[in-house]
Amino acid sequence: MSEFTLQVKARGQAGKDLYTMRKQGSIPAVMYGHGTEPQMLWVQYMDFSKLYAKAGESSIVEIIPETGKKVNVIVQDVQVDPLSGRFSHTDFFQVRMDEKLEAHVPLEFVGEAPAVREMGGILLKPIEEILVSCLPKDLPHTLSVDLSSLKTFEDHIQIKDMKIPAGVEILIEMDTTVALVEAPRTEAEIAALDEKVEGDVTKVEGVEKEGVVAPDEAIDTEKKGGNKEEKKAPAVKA
To answer: How far apart are CA 232 and CA 118, in angstroms?
Structure first.
């Protein structure tokens, strides 16, 4: 049994009562996968919000419908309304427990880098997640990155330095850097950067847009005959 479960209800025709159901605290969803017909569903907003905060898109979720058997899925393609910031739609991809799947697993950065704490460096995280392949039972919710090995500005952590759980295959290059510490900028470097930005702004303000004719030039062109009518050919007498 999965650690995460979610109650769902069947949804009728696409778009029917969509506004009403959202006002009542539900969001539309669709479940698909393994050649099955897509199923349109309703999910309680608060239930899904709590689930997504814990399960994300890298955990097996057990869908519990009103009728029929339970289904194992992973959450995919969650849509958020740009104005309200609320979830507006989600997909559920049906998985088979005896078949490998691919998923993006987020990185969890733990500990503190000595190069940050003692030397004032800046922690950089080039990537935030890793694509993996595994059986659903082996799918990790997160992959841990221990920052304590970053003692100097020359140190870096690559995927091959991480502890990868058994049964999990990494689908990107093992020498991919996941964390490093950059030396803090000196006051001279910051001042030089500010001067460069100011200089670039000045150049942009002084550049004329190509292909744009000033109003006075356009009027002058018309006076010189720029908009003259075409001469008609003389009529030919029969």
So the answer is: 85
